[in-house]
Amino acid sequence: MRILSTDPSVAAGLPSENFVNELSSVQIRSFIDFVESAQFGQTVKQAMIMPRNEETTSALREQLRSGLRHRQAFDRGQLFTATDVLEQVVHSAVEAITRASSPGFQRDGWAVVTAASVAASAVRNGELLASLRSTSEIHSFAEMLRSAAQFGHSKLEVAANGARRKVEYSQLYVPPDLAYSRVPAPGSLFEGYGSLSVSELLDLERNLVILGDPGAGKSTLAAKLTHDLAADVYERHRGQVPLLLKVRDFSQGIRTDHEPLMHYLHASCRRPRNLLPPPGAIEYLLLNGLGTVIIDGVDELGDSSARESFFDLVQGFVHLYPLARVIVTSRRVGYGEASLDPSLFSTFELRPFDSSQVAEYVVRWFRLDTFGDDNEAEILADGFMQQSELASDLRSNALLLSLLCSLYSAVRYIPTNRPEIYNKCANLLFENWDRQRGIEVAHRYESHIRPAVQKMAIHLFRDAQGRQALPRSEWMQFLTSYLQSRRFPNVLDAELAASDFLDFCAGRAWVITDVGSDQFEPHYGFVHPTFLEYFTAAQLVKERPRPAEVFGKIEPHLGDVSWRMVSQLAVQILNDSFDDGADELIKFMLINHRARARTRAGQDVYLNFIASLMEVVAPHNDSLEDAVGRIVTASCQVPVAERFTTPTEPAPRKYDPVAAVGPVDEPFLALLGVTMAENAERIASAIARNLWACAADPLAHPSVGPLWVALQQTICDSFEVARTAAELLSGQRVPAVVSDWRRQLQWPAAGDLATGGIAVLYRQMYCLGVLSPTPLNEMIHEFERAADAPTAQRRVARRISLQLRDYLTYLNAHPDERAALDLLPSEMPEDTWVLIVQNPDWLDSEARLSLKSLLWRPR
């Protein structure tokens, strides 16, 4: 997607005020209904694709005039005027999209659909403007909203010196880097970008999804972006009005009430901004490209069905307001189960902090902690960087880095795993900080504080309504019951202790605090979902601290992404409290996974969780070997036909290899992404050994060849484990089945066409999370990669020429096969082929003849 700015041509395409004023209410409704109809949308799409000349303009006007005439609401004079207005709207929308798109945009489905949306929104904007006496009240509201957003998000909250306080962004904030979430296609906008800043993303893209791990800084980024847009920090986006919607604040209503997105935008102005939007104000800002909607924390809706329903709202909203920018943040894990349409949203991931970003943050943090004493801050920062080297993967997470700094400041000690970090933080909170500040916490229920927090966590985490916070009255009822059963026989004493406890929690860093209120009472929740998950996991293990019992608690939720972190933390906590607890749990799963999960999908869920544990615990060698063997074998046993697209099947297609094979390969892909030092090399070796074993029996393991090729040529640059495994495989003789598949996927021979038809040149293979280019396009990619080496490129061109010439005999004998193919855009031959077929220096006459029959479908 390219940027659509507020375009003068779109504004010029609005129905004139005089024309609208002349129409009756029935005629206005008829006019709007036509603009929102499928017929009008198809007319705009035609205008996107057809060249603009006298003949096509006449045909366009006739379609518009006929569509209006059939509605029988306009007289002859009005009909011609309405047609003039609609023609101007259509051409203005097309011109705006054309300027905002790259060459070849007519083949971009997003551009075609968006042109129709822009045209429809222009008409709605004309209707809105005609209904307003003045826009001065709206502009005044916009400035107040910008001021409120700038002031409300001008500082960053941090826990330092044993207290929570707010500081200027410049004192602590380190700008994150973002990366495109998929491997960029050759020639795409993002090819060559290792990472991008927020400013670069805003310039390159309009609608964005920003994914990140827990604590990666998604919400901080959303708040900072809200502030910076309101403060005109980005020169190319001055005057934007940011509308920040925190999903957490409306999660219950979103899950149950199903109001339109506009309802929640209005509510977010009232609270916390304390502003009441004038009628039509937000719609005016959105229709005119002046509003940026930032939706933070969609993952907090919980299950995938709630997120999918909400995403339907968001996508409908984007079509209604195509000139507005929409930015969504969510956790990375689970986004694939319910995601936004990639033709409308580009997806990026927050990158972990690199060593320089960590060092910058640490110096700033200790400067705050020492009240600006640069010498002491430098000493502490140096010591922290040295001691935290062994925890480099943990300190690359923004939240964990902040916790590590706090721990080091207090105890000069750096834990090496997440549960220990959270545990030490809890100890600091409950035992050290308040006492260091001179606050006496010797409450009558002091020994029950931590158990109560864990009980509260699991109670909230299991809330049937999926709420992220509960009203004080509900917490009072829960805590009174808990404290009465353990400490206070008298219900009044228990109620008093429960009230004291909630007051004690309010404002405490990282655990439970008041997160807002309704008109009756405050609501309390965990400051960050990470700590809700940790204390929930701790309580799960505490209740029955044995491997089989812990697994029994998490087994029903293995396929639920909202339980993923809780389950992983529970296994880590179990491993610390029970000798070889993680290894025994993994062994228990391996023994039972086929018996307890009888379908392939169920077994994939088991294996995927086992693979995810390899990032957080180090099992014994036999457990690791068994797990890797089962995971690799499961992917190798997938029938190879299931991995390919089907160019012979008409669109829309019934079969999707990404949906069908993705869950099977997910455990394998998780293994390749493991970075834990104790496991990475062992996993790589086990993968290589198991692929060799599967290659010895290709009939039982039909996908071993494609997996081998993908591992060595598609995936190895992305993951260290994959790189190591590929090196181990390359040092051995290549099995025949691998050689055969390498040829079929990259340079199919004439004999492959005789076996599978010319469809083998246009099909894409889905393997290890990547949908590969078609063999035909893979050939041209090799030609493009040699562009800087003329001799090598001529050699590739010669090979292409010989290959195409070999195809000619088959193509002449089967002239109707190309016409039978119904190709998706990703299966179409790329434009570089057209340049080659027109250049006699690259191909001989027979090769060009062969290529022409492959490129163009006969009429």
Topology:
Blueprint: H1 8-12, H2 17-22, H3 25-35, H4 38-49, H5 54-69, H6 76-100, H7 109-131, H8 136-152, E1 155-160, E2 163-168, H9 169-172, E3 178-180, H10 198-204, E4 208-212, H11 218-230, E5 241-246, H12 247-256, H13 261-270, H14 281-287, E6 291-296, H15 304-320, E7 325-331, E8 346-350, H16 355-369, H17 374-387, H18 392-395, H19 398-411, H20 418-436, H21 449-461, E9 469-471, H22 472-486, H23 491-505, E10 512-517, E11 522-526, H24 529-543, H25 547-554, H26 564-577, H27 581-596, H28 600-613, H29 621-636, H30 657-672, H31 677-695, H32 704-715, H33 720-730, H34 736-746, H35 750-756, E12 766-767, E13 770-771, H36 775-785, H37 790-813, H38 817-820, H39 832-837, H40 845-855
Parallel strand pairs: 4-7, 4-8, 5-6, 6-7
Antiparallel strand pairs: 1-2, 3-8, 9-11, 10-11, 12-13
Helix pairs in contact: 4-5, 4-7, 5-6, 6-7, 8-11, 8-14, 16-17, 16-19, 19-20, 21-24, 22-23, 24-26, 25-26, 25-27, 26-27, 27-28, 28-29, 28-30, 29-30, 29-31, 31-33, 32-33, 32-34, 36-37, 37-40
